[in-house]
UniProtKB/TrEMBL annotation:
Pfam family, one: Fer4_10
InterPro entries linked to this entry: 4Fe4S_Fe-S-bd, 4Fe4S_Fe_S_CS, Fe-S_Ferredoxin
Organism: Nocardia aurea
Domain 4Fe-4S ferredoxin-type: 1-30, 31-61
PROSITE patterns, A to Z: 4FE4S_FER_1, 4FE4S_FER_2
UniProt keyword annotations, A-Z: 4Fe-4S, Iron, Iron-sulfur, Metal-binding
Keyword Electron transport: no
Official protein name in the record: Ferredoxin family protein
Length: 108
């Protein structure tokens, strides 16, 4: 479930708002997405995958984290490189290279 939007990292591109299939986000008055309908989150990770600046964290569970969970702390996530980690694992945005590149011919 989506848990964290980093206001510090967010560049207000609205990508997460556009790709979310269940319309979890609204654009806040300051441009930073707000988790207006967090309970509608399907834990699909699309928002995290599309965020170009690794500003989102989706926890790999289908219910909200307890209020005392350290993963709600942005500093904790940054220290462990968890913000945007799904995107990097996919190989998007200069992260690890995907299988297509690993086994295929050199790309132009
Ligand atoms: S994980 Fe999927 S359903 Fe949940 S907020 Fe992100 S895009 Fe929406
Ligand atoms: S995709 Fe990332 S940078 Fe763009 S609005 Fe959402 S959180 Fe901000």
């Amino acid at each position: 479930m989506i848990e964290v939007v980093s206001a510090e990292r967010c560049i207000e591109c609205d990508k997460c708002i556009e790709v979310c299939p269940t319309h979890v986000f609204d654009r806040g008055a300051d441009g930073i997405p707000v988790l207006t309908r967090q309970s509608d989150c399907q834990t699909c990770f699309m928002c995290e995958a599309y965020c170009p600046v690794d500003a989102l964290f989706v926890a790999p569970r289908t219910e909200p984290l307890p209020a005392d969970d350290p993963q709600l702390d942005e500093a904790y996530l940054i220290e462990r490189e968890l913000l945007g980690s799904y995107r990097r694992k996919l190989g998007w945005g200069g992260g690890q290279l995907g299988a297509r590149v690993a086994i295929g011919p050199e790309l132009p």
